[in-house]
Write a structure and sequence with these properties.
The complex is a heterodimer.
Chain A (H helix, E strand, L loop, with lengths): L3 E5 L9 H5 L5 E3 L11 E3 L10 H5 L5 E5 L12
Chain B lengths: L30 H13 L8 E5 L7 H4 L3 E4 L5 H11 L4 E7 H7 L1 H10 L3 E7 L34 H8 L3 E6 L3 H13 L4 E6 L3 H7 L5 H11 E3 L16 E8 L5 H9 L23
Classes of the chains: A alpha+beta, B alpha/beta.
Chain lengths: ~80, ~300
């Protein structure tokens, strides 16, 4: 299970590409699909790499995306995650 | 992938007026990014949001007061600081934040900025500098760099630009900083620090304007400007403000330049008036009741 994930409100997106450019683990990419206003919202291409750091949310000028950390279900017994 | 439905909620949305979203800002504009940093700075602090007011003038950045779910005041062009001064003097308990643009604060309201810094009014001023009057149609402002094209300077501006941190520092502000829209985390920390401080605090934020500034000067879109900020900016905390001039193509010096203690206006007024001064009697708290009152 990845450490985090992003939630995207596609209808607010204006396709500026800030989240795609500045994602530290390069999780996002602008999709070829359109939203109602004709912009290309981002989607996740490397979902397993997402750390949930919310840097995409900090950069998004339209409050359309934000990252969150997945809750840890059970404590890991081994040292390897 | 987890199949459980997670209830996730963007914490910034608590501070926004949902019915006003989507914003009017162009794709690639950096003002929304600065609002994110501001909202995170407010949420991370132990601040009473009921006693926080945001004042802004006219312009793209002036729309921020309308989008934030705080007590807000959208004032006339260039007069955000005088309105905020009145607000602070009438109710000293309020934490007043002025959030406006460069054309509004330094060009039309330039004198107000100087004198608020001289008086050391207890205000936090956030100036989003996109180097042009964007909302009114792309006219050259005092911060437009020399030789830049704009609607009113089609052959390039023949005037050097204003270095805002330098004049604010010279006028006597007690906290001066500059970041760009690229430095979101640093901006959040600086805003959190400025929110706690007393006196005149000034934060300049460079932001892209893809529609009027970048397009007229063949500088690409908003993303290109952000990548350019990343490349050109250099963090120099405590740098003397006369060295922070923005040169086209040169280094962008960012950081917290000035952090000093100085007696603010209200403290000084109370000290000089001594026993002649009495605080305004506390107002009865209005109870906000849900639904209608008996009369309606």
């Amino acid at each position: 299970m990845p450490k985090g994930s992003v939630a995207i409100t596609t209808e607010r997106c204006k396709g500026c590409g800030f989240c795609v450019e500045f994602c530290p683990t390069h999780v996002l990419e602008l999709s070829s699909a359109f939203n109602a206003k004709g912009y290309h919202p981002p989607h996740m291409i490397n979902a397993e790499k997402c750390s949930g750091c919310n840097l995409c949310g900090m950069y998004c000028p339209d409050f359309a995306i934000f990252g969150y950390r997945n809750p840890v279900d059970k404590p890991q017994k081994g040292t390897h995650s | 992938m987890s199949t459980t439905e997670l209830h996730v909620h963007n914490p910034v949305e608590d501070l926004l007026r949902q019915d006003r979203i989507p914003t009017i800002w162009c794709p690639g504009c950096g003002i929304g990014t600065t609002v994110n940093s501001f909202a995170h700075a407010l949420l991370g602090q132990d601040i009473d949001l009921k006693k926080t007011a945001i004042v802004s003038g006219i312009g793209c950045s002036g729309r921020v007061s309308g989008y934030m779910n705080l007590d807000s005041f959208h004032t006339t062009h260039g007069r955000a600081i005088p309105f905020a001064t009145g607000l602070k003097l009438a109710n000293p308990e309020l934490n007043v934040i002025v959030y406006s643009g460069d054309g509004d604060l330094t060009s039309i309201g330039g004198n107000h900025l100087l004198h608020a810094a001289r008086r050391n009014m207890d205000l936090m001023v956030v100036c989003v500098n996109n180097m042009i009057y964007a909302m009114t149609g792309g006219q050259a402002a005092a911060t437009t760099p020399g030789a830049a094209n704009s609607t009113t300077t089609p052959y390039g501006a023949f005037e050097p630009e204003l270095n805002i941190p330098q004049i604010v520092d010279a006028a006597g502000a007690c906290f001066v900083a500059r970041w760009t829209a690229f430095h979101v985390m640093q901006l959040e920390r600086t805003m959190a620090k400025a929110l706690k401080k007393k006196g005149f605090r000034f934060i300049e934020i460079l932001s892209p304007c893809p529609t009027y500034f970048q397009r007229k000067n063949n500088m690409g879109d908003g993303l290109a400007a952000m990548v350019d900020y990343k490349k050109r900016s250099k963090i120099k905390n405590g740098c003397p403000t006369w060295e922070t001039v923005l040169e086209p193509g040169g280094e962008i010096i960012v950081g917290e330049f000035v952090d000093r203690e100085r007696e603010d206006y209200l403290t000084r007024m109370r000290r000089q008036l001594g026993s002649n001064y009495t605080e305004f009697p506390p107002q009865m708290e209005e109870h906000e009741s849900e639904g209608c009152s008996k009369e309606c």
